[in-house]
Each structure stands twice: as C-alpha cells, then as structure tokens.
C-alpha cells in the first residue's frame, strides 16, 4: 500500500486550524464526535445549492436527483459495512437504531422470564432501551461482567448465556475503554444457543475496517457523525428475514404502500422503517465522508491510529499517579484516565484553557464507572488526523494543569 500523506489529510479539516483560548486547537474528543473534512461540507453545501427536493415523492428532476443522492448514500454505507443496501435501514444514529430493535423486534417477542444480556461496558444507548423493553415485557436485564483490564470476562459471558437469554446487546468497541470485543467468536456462541445479537458499532466504524457479515451478528448499528459524517445520520443493519418479520416502529409517509382507513399495507424493507422525510442532506454528507475514508483506506487509518495510541499510552504511562482505565491488548485509540489528587473536570477545564478538547465525566456509561468505583474520568480519543506533535503538546498541557492544581 502507498504511504498516506497524513499532513495533507489533516489539511482537509478546516476546523483543526482554528484557535481556542488563543492556543492552537488540539481536538482529542473524537469518540464524542468526529470533525468533518471539507469534502463533506462541500457535499452538503452542493446538495442545498443544486439538488434540494424531497425523496421518493416527486417525478420532477430535482426529486429524482434527491432520491438518487439519498439512495446512493445507502449504497455507499452498505459497501462500507459490506452488507446489502436493502438490509440497511437509514435513521438518525445508533440510538435510534437500537431503539428500533428494542421496539420492533424485542417488544413483541420477549416475555416474563426472558433475559436480555448486556455487557458492563455498554453506552446508555445500549442499556436504557433494553430496560424499557424489560419493564413492559417482564423480561430482565442481566449483566455480562468485565475484567479489571477492561476486557470482557469471556468465561462469565459463556456461563451467562443460559437458555433464558433471548438477546445479547454488546458494543463492538467500548467508547470509554477502547476495548475491541471479540464479537465474531461471541456471536458464534450466541448463535449456537439461539440468542439474537445486537452489536453497537458506534465506536468500531471510525477505527476498523468493517465486515459485518463476517461477524455473524443479527443486528449492527452505526452512527454517521463519528465517521466524519453529519450529525443525525446512522443506520441499522439486520438480516432480511429479521427485518421482514418486524413490524414498523414509526408510522407515517414513505413507509407505506397503500393507506385506507380500513387497512394500510407497508412498503418493502428497508423503507418500511423510514417514515417521514429523512435527513437527506446529512446522508449526502455521510456518503461523501465514507468516500473520503475509503480514499485513505480503513486499514491505513487503523495502522495510523495504532501508532498514535501507542505514543499517547507510552507518554501517559510515564506520569506518576496516572491510572489508565482500559488496558486490553486489542484497543482502539481511546484512553480514559485519572490522575491522583486531581478532579477530571478541573483538569479538563484547565486543558481547555490550553486549547485542548477532551471529555471529562461518565461518558454515558454510568455502570462502567461504578465498576471502577470512580465518579468521572478524563478521556482522550484520537482520530487519524491527530498528530504526534499534538500528543506531545497535550501531555505538556496535562502536566501544567496538574501543577496548577497543586
Ligand atoms: N454507543 C456508543 C458506544 C457510543 O459511543 C455512542 C455515542 N457516544 C452511542 C452509542 C450513541 O450514538 P448516537 O448519539 O450517535 O446515537
């Protein structure tokens, strides 16, 4: 493979050139949302300047152009995930995608005595919908525990997959620990026991080449804004039989074939699940984002981020009193940590004064922080457009912040 010119890549991101508090911005909050290359901004801009119309409704030229652009984005995302477009429901993001599974697949099927298994490291988006379903069906939510290094306890998980378990909800990559879970092997075990698997790919899609069919899961959710696309874009992939067997979740225009007051027939999948006017411009932008990532290559991105992660981890390991949460061997470029005697929010506030954007808090993963017995962590999450020089500056700013806090 040809070497990537990372400096040239970085120049595609206009926001990264701005200053914050009179310092050059260091954006290390990529797990929260990623920055957008100028190609994405231009695609959205061009859509509104030249092609704006609603999808699948009008026969006029603009309507056709808008529909082609929207459906083109579906094809691009399908290629990115190595799945078929008709099995890909476009929606506003992972949160919607998981709720779609919860309300449309789980709610009509689960009953008292059934178990929904979720891991300790889930984002609230992969916990709360299951609690809502449990409340309404009498099913219970049980927890697959982790080990102190932030990897899943695979023996415990194996034991937890009892005949009562109907559904396993699991992150492909943890947004706090960075852990890459062995999803393929876990789904194989789940399948043998008839357990349906829902994989939250929010933090995997930005960092790894995706091959969803190879994982052997039943549902896979992604969110567009973490892969350099606009906010309010995302998708749920599911096998055709599952989608066909599921009732619609949201009703309205676009998702129907025929409507009368006596009986309504629904559109084919995936449109059956896409009621109302979608985020058309957003998906046009997402298509451009995926073309952009494809141009670099997800393998190259993984390798680059692996180097950045190794550098950051090495620097942080040198700091006395600093504890990293999540040291599993297979990790994405996300580092959560604390420094003895310094509050995470205080450090983050002082880092902001130095132009550094990191997240402090519980990262929408309260049960995970409860496991570690801490109220908050600092999280530095990297993207391929970050640099080794930024890591050096970040560490210097962190040491300065700690000195200031005494
Ligand atoms: N799951 C994980 C692991 C996440 O990191 C996030 C975003 N922080 C979500 C789900 C929710 O994604 P969204 O807000 O885009 O729906």
Automatic annotation (TrEMBL):
The keyword Transferase applies. It comes from the Bacteria. Catalyzes the removal of elemental sulfur and selenium atoms from L-cysteine, L-cystine, L-selenocysteine, and L-selenocystine to produce L-alanine. Its cofactor is pyridoxal 5'-phosphate. GO terms for biological process: cysteine metabolic process. PANTHER family: CYSTEINE DESULFURASE, CYSTEINE DESULFURASE 1, CHLOROPLASTIC. It comes from Pseudoxanthomonas composti. Residues 26-394 form the Aminotransferase class V domain. Belongs to the class-V pyridoxal-phosphate-dependent aminotransferase family. Csd subfamily. This is Cysteine desulfurase. It catalyses: (sulfur carrier)-H + L-cysteine = (sulfur carrier)-SH + L-alanine.
């Amino acid at each position: 493979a040809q070497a990537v010119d990372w400096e040239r890549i970085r120049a595609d991101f206009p926001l990264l050139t701005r200053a914050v508090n009179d310092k050059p911005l260091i954006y290390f909050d990529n797990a929260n949302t990623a920055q957008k290359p100028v190609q994405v901004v231009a695609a959205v801009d061009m859509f509104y300047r030249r092609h704006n119309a609603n999808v699948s409704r009008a026969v006029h030229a603009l309507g056709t152009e808008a529909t082609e652009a929207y459906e083109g984005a579906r094809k691009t995302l399908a290629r990115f995930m190595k799945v078929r477009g008709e099995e890909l429901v476009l929606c506003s993001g992972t949160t919607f995608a998981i709720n779609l599974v919860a309300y449309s697949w789980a709610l009509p099927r689960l009953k008292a005595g059934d178990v929904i298994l979720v891991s300790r490291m889930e984002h609230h988006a992969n916990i709360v919908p299951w609690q809502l379903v449990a409340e309404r069906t009498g099913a219970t939510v049980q927890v697959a525990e982790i080990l102190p290094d932030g990897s899943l306890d695979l023996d415990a998980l194996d034991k937890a997959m009892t005949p009562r378990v109907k559904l396993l909800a699991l992150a492909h990559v943890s947004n706090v620990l960075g852990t890459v879970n062995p999803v393929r092997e876990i789904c194989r075990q789940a399948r043998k026991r008839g357990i349906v698997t829902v994989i939250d790919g929010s933090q995997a899609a930005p960092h790894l080449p995706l091959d969803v069919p190879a994982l052997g899961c039943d549902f896979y959710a992604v969110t567009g804004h973490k892969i350099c696309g606009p906010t309010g874009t995302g998708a749920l992939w599911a096998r055709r039989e599952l989608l066909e067997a599921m009732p619609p979740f949201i009703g309205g225009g676009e998702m129907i074939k025929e409507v009368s007051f006596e009986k309504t027939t629904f559109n084919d999948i995936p449109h059956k699940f896409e009621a109302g006017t979608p985020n058309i411009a957003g998906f046009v932008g997402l298509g451009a984002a995926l073309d952009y990532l494809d141009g670099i290559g997800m393998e190259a991105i993984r390798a680059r981020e692996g180097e950045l992660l190794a550098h950051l981890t090495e620097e942080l390991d040198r700091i006395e009193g600093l504890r990293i949460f999540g040291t599993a061997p297979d990790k994405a470029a996300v580092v959560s940590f604390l420094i003895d005697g310094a509050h995470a929010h205080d450090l983050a506030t002082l880092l902001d004064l130095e132009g550094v954007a990191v997240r402090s808090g519980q990262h929408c993963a309260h049960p995970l922080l409860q496991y570690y017995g801490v109220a908050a962590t600092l999280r530095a999450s990297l993207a391929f457009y970050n640099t080794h020089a930024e890591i050096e500056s970040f560490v210097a700013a962190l040491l300065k912040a700690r000195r200031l806090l005494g």
